[in-house]
């Protein structure tokens, strides 16, 4: 049996009645079916804490990217500028789910908004538009390029902590170089790093691009870029999903009684 990997959904208005729907991009489904070798399970943005019902059945969790921002009230930040997309239904489900997954050693891969949620869930805060801050780069989606190129093209390099968790899962060549080239589709960034997070990669302007959860018993990694878009061409993106999938398979074996059961870190 393949490991069951939960994928967080956004709540989006759909159809002529703008009915609330629960949605995740097909790119996450394909990354789970492909290099992670798992069975994808879509997790609704239900507006409530479902962690007690979901986690006993899951072998891994992907926190997805999204155009919406985490509601700033969760980190005592200033209100968003008018028109900034929010998804309070998603926040209410993902923030407790992240804390519970880490506590129970369920492998976790947090991507873009997902990494921002991970930081907020553990007590960190966010800058809302890093392109407006002095000395910082514009990390947002360029409007003058075709979307496929934006998603699979490389926007900038990131410097990687050579002995970190991320370095241990990427290709030997990138590990030796201590660098990766990544895509970039975000406005927000980590402002105050959560006490339990350790930065593992940085953009040239100092923006934190990857984090790990200190003392986590399972795989617990966040990346600010999008490996789900280019794993078919990019060996490092593929390697991240392969390593995550191995951790999920090990969690499944442990749940079935065929391996060591991860203990809660706290
Ligand atoms: N809204 C946040 C998070 C950005 C993010 O997750 N982007 C994914 C976009 C997916 C796509 O356009 O394909 C921010 O702006 O930082």
CATH homologous superfamily identity:
Class I glutamine amidotransferase (GATase) domain
Q: Report low-confidence residues grouped into runs of 5 or more.
A: none
Q: What's the number of extended β-strand segments? A: 13
Q: What would CATH call the class?
A: Alpha Beta
**Which percent band covers the strand fraction?**
15-25%
Tell me roughly what share of residues is in helical segments: 25-40%
Radius of gyration: 17 Å
- State the secondary-structure class: alpha/beta
Q: What is the 3D form? A: globular
Order of strands across the main sheet: 4-1-5-6-13-12-11-8-9
Number of helices: 8
What compounds are bound to the protein?
ligand LF53FM6H
For the terminal residues, how far apart are their CA atoms? 30 Å
CATH fold call: Rossmann fold
- CATH architecture label: 3-Layer(aba) Sandwich
Instruction: Let me know the largest β-sheet.
Output: 9 strands, mixed
Number of domains: 1
Spell out the helices and strands N to C: EEEHEHEHEHEHEHHEEEEEH
Average pLDDT rating: 95
């Amino acid at each position: 049996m393949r490991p069951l990997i939960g994928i967080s959904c956004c709540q989006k208005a759909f159809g002529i009645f703008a009915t609330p729907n629960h949605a995740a991009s097909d790119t996450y489904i394909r990354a789970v079916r492909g290099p992670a070798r798992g069975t994808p399970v879509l997790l609704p943005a239900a507006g409530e804490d479902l962690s007690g019902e979901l986690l006993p059945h899951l072998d891994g969790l992907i926190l997805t990217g999204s155009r919406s921002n985490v509601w700033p009230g969760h980190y005592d930040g200033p209100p968003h500028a008018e028109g900034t997309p929010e998804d309070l239904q998603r926040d209410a489900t993902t923030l407790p789910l992240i804390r519970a997954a880490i506590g129970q050693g369920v492998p976790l891969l947090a991507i873009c908004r997902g990494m921002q949620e991970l930081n907020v869930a553990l007590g960190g805060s966010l800058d809302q538009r890093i392109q407006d801050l002095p000395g910082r780069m514009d990390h947002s989606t360029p409007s003058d390029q075709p979307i496929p190129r934006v998603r699979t093209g490389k926007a900038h390099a990131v410097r990687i902590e050579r002995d970190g968790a991320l370095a241990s899962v990427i290709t030997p060549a990138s590990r030796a170089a201590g660098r990766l080239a990544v895509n970039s589709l975000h406005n927000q960034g980590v402002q105050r790093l959560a006490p339990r997070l350790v930065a593992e990669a940085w953009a040239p302007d100092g923006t934190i691009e990857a984090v790990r959860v200190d003392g986590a018993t399972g795989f617990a990694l966040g990346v600010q870029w999008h490996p789900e878009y280019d794993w078919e061409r990019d060996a490092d993106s593929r390697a991240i999903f392969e390593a995550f999938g191995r951790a999920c398979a090990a969690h499944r074996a442990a749940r079935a009684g065929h391996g060591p059961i991860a203990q809660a870190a706290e």
